[in-house]
Specification:
Elements lengths: L1 H8 L6 E3 L9 E3 L23 E5 L3 H6 L14 H7 L4 E6 L18 H13 L3 E6 L22 H21 L4 E6 L13 H21 L5 E6 L5 H13 L6 E6 L7 H15 L2 E7 L29 H16 L5 E7 L11 H11 L16 H4 L23 H4 L10 E5 L2 E5 L9 E6 L4 E8 L15 E11 L2 E12 L18 E4 L6 E6 L9 E6 L4 E9 L5 E12 L4 E9 L2 E7 L11 E7 L4 E9 L4 E11 L3
Parallel strand pairs: 3-4, 3-10, 4-5, 5-6, 6-7, 7-8, 8-9, 9-10, 12-16
Antiparallel strand pairs: 1-2, 11-13, 13-14, 14-15, 15-16, 17-20, 18-19, 19-26, 20-25, 21-24, 21-26, 22-23, 22-25
């Protein structure tokens, strides 16, 4: 009905074009070109980017958002179909997820956009109308599928692999026929979402491959029937583990999975460096002859939460914010991700930004918004999802965890970062502005003098940095006395200035215990003060790693992992201490040790002190402490012995040898 009406209008508008495929309906396309207007962001040109490079966004939640009362505007502040606004921003492709049956027995939406086939149809028709291509992302589940869960749809649970394969084939074929019958311009179909060794309840690769091939067969057949060309894609997460990607590619080859594109998620906070991304995707493309792309990426433009429902990434997140958390930082992250895929050569075909439209629904409180999330499925999960996914959705259901990574502000107006897509090929520049300040952290030992920095590092919107003067407001504390007040952390507000423009910032002042260990957290590259012994060279990985999420503090820590059994000793000898009593502690976390013997020790005046500790899981930090170490000759050796079974891993950090105050 909705289509038929537009069909009649066609004759009146000569600028309308037809799209569509061999059979089924046709959608009138209102050709929408990227807007030409002065940029509000800096975008470094991506050299070598193809004209047909996929500039995608996944706006699967948009329909549920609109039903909840969200309104999207164009760059001039006028209400407009979001698909048209996307096309005007230079977006070429929209990715849409499909869940088999995301409803409970009473028809209530599980949430997360409620993306069933009907939703995909409606979004796909609108995208096609504005000349956007469509990627269909079958999760082959009734709700979120990702590396942590790949549950089979309710209707397939309990099926053996043959029946499940038939069901998946039929579901894919029926869905594709329905979508193509509408005239939706589908260019690619995903055979699962982030299928890291699991798919639709199966964990064996021969079964996973069988399911993927059934999906691929259905896609090939329907594409042929509709006289169109559609790529098939497999999708994985965690490119920071390249060996894992090689394994997946090997399995896909071993089981002859029929796919064209090896798609990776790439969230900069968690997924390693861009160099690593380019390297692993290039290897996949050359060794296995596949196209490669980033199927999901994002970056936060603010730390603020817009809808009283916690965000996936926040100021408290332990992760690497490698760009300023600003609109410009978000744009630069997208640009650099596109450049990293382009660097894969001809095989690198595109980048998709995940859920730029998932902004807060109307309301002024959690309770008000919750009514809409529950009714329209516009939050990440509704309470009704608990019947399908009791352990995650059932416990933590709520609103958008993504509003601070959207490319629309909380009122539905596009951020300047959305226009990054139209500037990638030529580059863009704007007025130079202060974009962010790197907040200084000052660490002072007890009773030492405190000096705050006179300058801070400012980051400008073109990515350049400069030291600029700063004024600290110390009216609330007495700097001359503060290091005598015990161990504590203070946040001191300040104002940085550059060329007349000012920006608020904050200095974190940490008053810490005296520590006689040199390079106690491995933050310095010089390790000569440490004595690190890899016993019989059994431990396959033993080195300093620079990864915020593995460190107890700072960015570095001493990492270990071994495919053989683990055995190593780390120690440091401190001399010229004042005779007296000292305490020694350090911090460790890790896991996968079926057996372990981990002991910290200290040696002073010929006496050995020991304290056992252990590893359990990631970021479950243990801080064993030996108290009352006495020295008369001023020398103390501190250390740790680690013996674990193979497969164990962990990180050592924050060694501390502090005097016991009388
Ligand atoms: Ca939120």
């Amino acid at each position: 009905m909705y289509l038929a009406k537009r069909f009649v209008l066609l004759a009146a508008f000569s600028f309308l074009l037809f799209t569509g495929t061999g059979c089924g309906k046709k959608i009138e396309v209102e050709e929408t070109a990227p807007l030409e207007r002065p940029a509000q962001i800096f975008v470094e040109k991506v050299d070598g980017i193809d004209d047909d490079f996929i500039l995608g966004v996944d706006v699967s939640s948009a329909l549920a958002e609109e039903k909840s009362g969200v309104v999207y505007y164009n760059e001039d502040g006028t209400r407009q179909d979001i698909m048209k606004t996307l096309a005007e921003s230079g977006v070429t492709t929209v990715r849409i997820r499909v869940w088999n049956d995301p409803f409970d027995a009473d028809g209530n939406s599980y949430g997360g956009g409620g993306n069933d086939l009907e939703t995909a149809k409606e979004l796909g028709i609108r995208a096609t109308k504005y000349g956007l291509n469509v990627i269909i992302d079958f999760h082959y589940s009734d709700f979120w599928a990702d590396p942590s869960k790949q549950m089979a749809p309710k209707a397939w649970q309990g099926m053996d692999i043959n029946d499940k394969t038939d069901a998946l084939y039929k579901f894919t074929k029926d869905s594709m026929n329905e979508l193509l019958n509408e005239g939706i311009n589908i260019i690619m179909v995903q055979l699962g979402n982030e299928t890291n060794g699991k798919l639709s309840g199966e964990r064996q690769w021969n079964f996973i491959a069988k399911l993927m091939n059934a999906g691929a067969k259905a896609v090939r057949e329907t594409a042929k029937k509709h006289k169109t060309s559609i790529m098939t894609a497999v999708h994985f997460a965690n490119p920071e583990n390249p060996e894992q990607y090689i394994k997946y590619a090997d399995y896909l080859k071993q089981y002859s999975v029929d796919y064209d594109v090896f798609m990776s998620s790439y969230y900069p906070y968690w997924h390693g460096t861009l160099e690593n991304l380019t390297s692993i995707l290039t290897k996949i493309s050359t060794d296995y002859g596949k196209k490669v792309m980033v199927g999901e990426t994002s970056y936060a433009y603010t730390y603020e939460d817009g809808d009283n429902s916690g965000n996936s990434v926040s100021a408290e997140s332990v992760c690497d914010f490698r760009y300023p958390v600003t609109v410009q930082g978000q744009a630069t992250s997208v640009r650099d991700t596109a450049a990293a895929v382009t660097a894969c050569g001809e095989a690198g075909i595109g980048v998709v930004y995940w859920e730029p439209a998932w902004i807060p629904v109307p309301g002024s409180s959690y309770e008000e918004r919750s009514v809409l999330w529950e009714k329209y499925g516009s939050g990440w999960a509704s309470s009704y999802a608990g019947s399908y996914d009791p352990n995650d959705a059932g416990k933590y259901y709520g609103g958008s965890s993504w509003d601070n990574q959207a490319m629309f502000d909380v009122t539905g107006h596009p951020l300047a970062s959305l226009s990054v897509f139209r500037y990638l090929k030529e580059g863009a520049s704007t007025d130079l502005r202060l974009d962010a300040i790197n907040k200084p952290v000052v660490t002072v030992r007890l009773k030492d003098p405190v000096t705050l920095p006179e300058t801070v590092q400012a980051i400008f919107n073109d990515g350049s940095t400069m030291e600029v003067p700063v004024t600290w407001d110390t009216s609330a504390i007495d700097l001359s006395n503060i290091s005598f007040q015990g161990v504590a952390t203070y946040l001191i507000p300040g104002t940085a200035e550059s060329n007349g423009s000012a920006m608020q910032t904050v200095c974190q002042l940490d008053i810490v215990e005296k520590n006689y260990i040199e390079n106690p957290g491995f933050e310095l590259s010089d390790l000569s003060m440490w004595n690190i012994t890899n016993v019989d060279n059994k431990t396959t990985e033993l080195f300093v790693t620079e990864k915020v999420s593995d460190a107890a503090s700072g960015t570095c820590s001493l990492h270990f992992y071994s495919t053989n059994s683990v055995e190593f000793i780390v120690k440091q000898t401190v001399s010229d201490l004042t005779a007296g009593t000292y305490n020694y502690s350090m911090t460790i976390h890790g896991g996968d040790a079926s057996t372990q013997e981990i002991v910290i020790y200290a040696i002073a005046d010929g006496k050995t002190y020991e304290m056992p500790t252990s590893i359990s899981s990631w970021r479950e930090f243990k801080t064993p402490k030996i108290e009352g170490i006495t020295t008369t000759d001023g020398t103390i050796t501190i250390g740790i012995r680690v013996r674990c079974s193979s497969g164990a891993w962990g990180n050592l950090d924050d060694f501390l040898l502090a005097p016991v105050e009388e």
